[in-house]
Model the fold of this input.
Amino acid sequence: MIRSARRTRRMVQMAGLSTAALLALASCSSGDGSSTSGSGSSPGASGSDELSDEVIVFAAASLKESFTTLGKEFEKEHPGTKVTFSFGGSDALAASITAGAPADVFASASPKTMKIVTDAGDNSGAPTAFVRNQLEIATLPGNPDKIGSLKDLTNSDLKVVLCDEAVPCGAAAQKALDASRLKVTPVSYEEDVKAALNKVVLKEADAAVVYRTDVKAAGDKVQGVDFPESAEAVNDYPITLLKASENTDAATAFIELVKSPEGQKVLNEAGFLNP
Amino acid sequence: MTSPSPDTTAAVDTLTGGPGRRTGAPRRGRNRRGAPLPLLLPALIGLAFLVLPLVALLIRAPWRSMPELLTSAEVWDALRLSLVCATVATAVCLVIGVPLAWLLARVEFPGRGLVRALVTLPLVLPPVVGGVALLMALGRNGVVGRSLDDWFGITLPFTTTGVVVAEAFVAMPFLVISVEGTLRAADPRFEEAATTLGASRFTAFRRVTLPLIAPGIAAGAVLAWARALGEFGATITFAGNFPGRTQTMPLAVYLALQSDPEAAIALSLVLLAVSVAVLAGLRDRWMSAS
Done:
């Protein structure tokens, strides 16, 4: 009896040890998971003292391609500078800025998400609109389901993904649907526009309501379908310098580049409309 | 018998942080007086580091608007879905994970080390990567998922089943590793004795091994359940986010944080309370059952 008790104890002791190690591992991995879609602000956080010429830009997910191009141009024009981007859902970015994430510039996909930052007084100077973006339906290549209008998305046989209403693309899609008195029941409300687009790129969903620029950026992996109701929900993209900026000169120069004819050309090529 | 049986004591030990807490009580006093500062200081910092965020959650909680925030149907949907999915995922893990652990612990076969490494891989894999991998395998266009769709019309992404799949994928290694460790520490001679007395190997497993390792299985199941309950990355990647169908509590917390931080804190507290309640509840039951 005593011996078996001791044995049981030893055996569970081992299980205890291994489980403790497992818990440690788990907390690390789940931390990784959430931060990829979260703020992602850490790269610029440390070492910004030494690299005084680093500009940290928080920008809406839909700006990824064009801002990356502009960042490279900026670095070429101003040798010694480095532009670091954190792309994500505008609301998540706004939340991390108000929570104190170190950033120089914020470019959001809607005035509403920009307002979160200005309401908290984290901006420096008034935000200005630099582009506009229109919604489009992304379908599978070749449009096998023959989606031709927003109304076609109400078909319950289709797997449609929308952005969550907290994100600008979701709010805009809802606005367009409300304006045309349509009700779409999606299979998922995605956390940002790229997540919604990628569900179609991976062929898991039949259609997604995303920005025209995202359809263009995805190339031939999706096919875009214009719909007239998108005119009801055109998003203004505001950009602003942030109060926490430690590198205002370079940050202002980057904002100027975005608003310059050169910057607008890059943005237009990506499918953005002029403000 | 005044003290709980050895089995239940051991199982509780696993959850409460190690054996010998009660028997070591007299020694502990002497140890504390002699705790050297280089150990005591980091230990206290470590404790504060773990506890402070939870305390902050309580301090910042919007207690006044709490009833309103927590009575919404969406919160209850998410909570119900979280509990159901985590429980089903744990059941799935038990059904296929315990035999897998037995295989790893009791059967010699070539490449066993590799298999064990593969089983533990989802542990170290970022959950989002796990979600992408699940899409590649079981998505509508995935390696296996395509056939599932063609032959049976089953698609897993964006369904509650998909949530269970994602949670089981992430949680099963916890169970397998924990049960395998218990099996390795258990004496195989009991099973051998049973088989020499005429029991088949399966009967020996069912009648001798299972009762022997029950505490280890229970501890592993609790861990797997807790991991499944908190699962975020693989779920949102593989199963998407739709209230009542695939929006579990962690997803609701994450999305609420972006639009309504107060609601996010309230939801976090619910999840915290559920976790504490389950751990405490299981502990009490194991301690009183003897």
In short: DSSP finds 14 helices and no strands in chain B. Residues 73-106 of chain B form the longest helix (34 residues). Confidence is low (pLDDT under 50) at residues 1-13, 15-29 of chain B.
